[in-house]
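Changelog note: in this version the structure field was regenerated for every chain. One regenerated record is shown below for reference.
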Amino acid sequence: MVKLAFDTQVEGLNFTQNATVYIRYKDSCAARVGKDVDRIAIVRRSFDELTGRFTVEGQSSPAPEKDTKDSEFAV
């Protein structure tokens, strides 16, 4: 992992039930085949009080270019 950030204040949601995690990492497997190695994963955890179920959703994509100044994860 290169960087990790938590967002627990999404629209006043409770951290014990809902959170978003942003992870910046280097993908060593992709590097071996010449693909992007600097990546960002976003994982969202939420709890539905009515059903009592947790949901985890995630996605991964290439990190923004290093000269991007708007991104929190820019190097």
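Spot check on this record: The beta strands are 3-7, 19-26, 38-48, 53-62. The chain has a mean pLDDT of 75.
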